[in-house]
Write the structure tokens for this entry.
Amino acid sequence: MTEQPTNCITLHESGYEPGQEVIRIDKEGFHYRGQFISDVGEAHRLMVEFLRQNTQSEPQGPTDVELDELFTEIDQSGESESWRSFALAVLTRWGRPSIKPVPVAERLPGPEDCDAEGWCWVASEDCPAWHRVSCHFDAWHYWLPHHALPVPQNNA
């Protein structure tokens, strides 16, 4: 593994060659494909574009209609504490536990942990930045499922 500077974030595209970073954020600022980007708006646009192309969006919670339908279903079940049952049912159906990195020594990712192309996120103690890789886990200490790092949504 190549020497990585400390205190920086480095992002690579799927199937990257070592040293071919797309984005690096360090104490000097934002770098895109080896070029320093001084314009904050442009840096934000490039970051959002990269994340949209290389990660999956965060799962969305239930709609008001879905909540109303679930509450009606529970309320008609005759349970005396329908609000408590409703809250538990919502958490069961749509709740997500916090995602914790899995040590490579504990287990390797399976097909259900990877995206359709076989990619997931990895990091190591000497290179704590998260990278997307496929099949090569020997140099890494931790991994996350492909959906663990959500894409920020542009609300503009």
